[in-house]
Amino acid sequence: MYTTQDIAAIRTQVRQWRLAGKTVAFVPTMGNLHQGHITLVTEALKRADHVVVSIFVNPMQFGQNEDLDAYPRTLAADQAALEAAGAELLFTPTPAIIYPKGMDKQTFVEVPGLSEELCGASRPGHFRGVATIVCKLFNIVQPDLALFGKKDFQQLMVIKAMVEDLSLPIEIVGVDTIRESSGLAMSSRNGYLSEAQKQQAAQLKRTLDEMAEAIAQGQAIPNVVQHAQEQLHHAGFKPDYLSVRNAADLSEVQADDKQLVILAAAFMGSTRLIDNLSFERA
């Protein structure tokens, strides 16, 4: 696997692959990789001839009081895991390479509506940072397809909307959430949890499962949400939001909507965890 910070080197290699008639998949990450990220690479290799991965801790998507400086950087371990998984090209730019004029003078991309609620309401400007960096990475790598985990369901929806709105010729593939044996969704932020907190945090997925079953059986959504919030408090969480939405566009649920998604964000101690569950209502 070849690792580079050079944009021109990325473009040259991708151009050579394209001239040979090969397809290119792209997996953008912030590093500190876990099995969820490796699954994205494995799935990418099933769908394309070559796989490019990026590692970039994007300062534009972090708020003032968030964990940018504390976010784990584990490049050597990440390189070893990616090479073992079959990735061939790793792009590891610095903020100075990505934002040479500084973030204050950087053109940005913003998806209206979707970016302003749920995680967007809790983390103002977060999805502007996500859309901007993903769009920029897409323009650098120019892949045929890009893969993202469904754990970050709202992020996936934002990226799909951006690609559609800007007519980018890239297929966006969502890959199912990879979970620990307890049910806890794998996340780089799980490393902030103690072992006891990890066991407590597994209640988040169990709560989502119980919510989906109750709603599918016809219970009123507001009642289900209220009961679930009480459960999370009892389990040691401080809920940020807990919402049931239309799975197609994250709009508020209407009476005849069948494909739904529950989205949750909650703090376990100082660590903010997110999860979601898609399901069908009869």
UniProtKB/TrEMBL annotation:
GO function terms (MF aspect): ATP binding; pantoate-beta-alanine ligase activity
InterPro entries: Cyt_trans-like (IPR004821), Pantoate_ligase (IPR003721), Pantoate_ligase_C (IPR042176), Rossmann-like_a/b/a_fold (IPR014729)
Protein name: Pantothenate synthetase
Biological role: Catalyzes the condensation of pantoate with beta-alanine in an ATP-dependent reaction via a pantoyl-adenylate intermediate.
Pfam families in the cross-refs: Pantoate_ligase (PF02569)
Binding site for ATP: 30-37, 149-152, 178, 186-189
Record organism: Shewanella insulae
Record GO biological process: pantothenate biosynthetic process
Alphabetized HAMAP family for the sequence: PanC
Subcellular location: Cytoplasm
Ligand binding (beta-alanine): Q61
More details: The reaction proceeds by a bi uni uni bi ping pong mechanism.
Oligomeric and partner information: Homodimer.
Keywords: ATP-binding, Cytoplasm, Ligase, Nucleotide-binding, Pantothenate biosynthesis
GO cellular component: cytosol
